[in-house]
User: Fold this.
Amino acid sequence: MTDPMATRVEALEALLTEKGIVDPAVIDKVVDHYETNVGPLNGAKVVARAWSDPAYMRRLLADGTRAVAELGFGGPEGHMVVAVPNTPAVHNVVVCTLCSCYPWPVLGLPPAWYKSPAYRSRMVAQPRAVLAEMGLDVPPNVLIRVWDSSAEARYLVVPERPSGTDGFDEEQLARLVTRDSMIGVGHALSPEDHG
Assistant:
């Protein structure tokens, strides 16, 4: 079934492009900015605080929505945030099998691949294979947990803190957190990766 709102947006964008009012490349650039920078920076701050403050980590795992709100993030698509921590034994990954439920206040706009039918169906059935295709090899001895986001629960993966970051402050730590690591399809950057 086609989403009527999506159809209207596409028609409006096509009309505005045809009339020379908007440039699709500019729209793509703005969307990419919100997908990869604005929202994910909020989530990165949440993860950095959790990595550096054990009491905050406990609050985040007990009530993600409330802990995220402590840092000033929340609102539409930000209710019912559930944080799940990656450990050496467990790797968490998030999918929304029905649509594209996603915690926008901490992750920004969902990437196109997150909404794709292939990701939504295959991640549940073949998570290890899909993660490998996305460039993340999870060792066979690590359990993969797939969390199905919904209107009742929107998941935020707390990636493992990279080694070599003991003296890092929250700002430095936040630079290592990527959107993909908070979805579970990637790891946080190492200090060497970030430069």
